[in-house]
Amino acid sequence: MAQEQHEPRESRDQHDQRTGHHGHHPTHGHGHGTDIDWAEMAHHLESQAELFTPLYERALAWLGKEVTEPGLIVDVGSGPGVVSCLFAEMFPGARVVAADGSEPLLGWARERAGRLGYADRFGTLLGELPGSLQELDYPADLMWAGRSLHHLGDQRAALAAFAERLAPGGTLAIMEGGLPPRFLPRDLGFGRPGIEARLDALETEWFARMRAELPDAVAETEDWAALLTSAGLKHARSRSFLLDLPAPAPDRARAYVAASLGRMRDTVGEDLDAEDRATLDRLLDPRDEASVHRRPDVFVLAAHTVHTAVRPQ
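That's the Class I SAM-dependent methyltransferase sequence above. Prediction below.
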């Protein structure tokens, strides 16, 4: 299994991961730009992945029907390692490698694996993706890229690189697409109804800018089955998984909603009209009874889609 690779970090590290779009509320980044400080995002990324654990568990159980006894699982763009450790839990006979471009995030992953008792079969791989995957000691039986592929400029080339590091008969699974999350009713009782739909539209523009500014960015039709097939893989299939945390949301879900809307305010708030900015400010003010911190109708509803394909024997 690959061990810790302490390679120099480069400017592209900030683009090597994460929990994301589509619904990819820019739970990344601050300000109007598209640069992402992943180390600064660590706590939020961990909290979000923990909240979404029921969704990930269903996705991994689905994968487990196809990939029954993997020897090596690689989590590409692992971030703080929440999903990496879920793989270690679900596949107790597997070795798991968390691969990422951020050493601070891999530090979180190692700490989590040790705390949960997986350290003896858990490794990390530091380096720019997808090139760092060449450092793996042997091919993967299962490779997972959970909302990390869209942070690589040339997605088609990245998929080909992922496929090269699969063992014959190995499975590549990417989580991309789905539906934007929803947290609130359409009519809040103040402001103009439908603010989340307008935030989605602005976020879609932000995401397009982020993609265009990536090194070696290539525009690509997001037909994931076709892209997986173009990488030489077979038997492409897709399935979506739902996270449904109904109102009244528990405290940790409220914290996630507040953090997500707060980052949206930082990222695209300048593009909102004055009324929507005022509405968002009320939603984020913990002193306001109408805020997401207090109102009883806050929920979390999201859908993520997983696409898989297999390297021919």
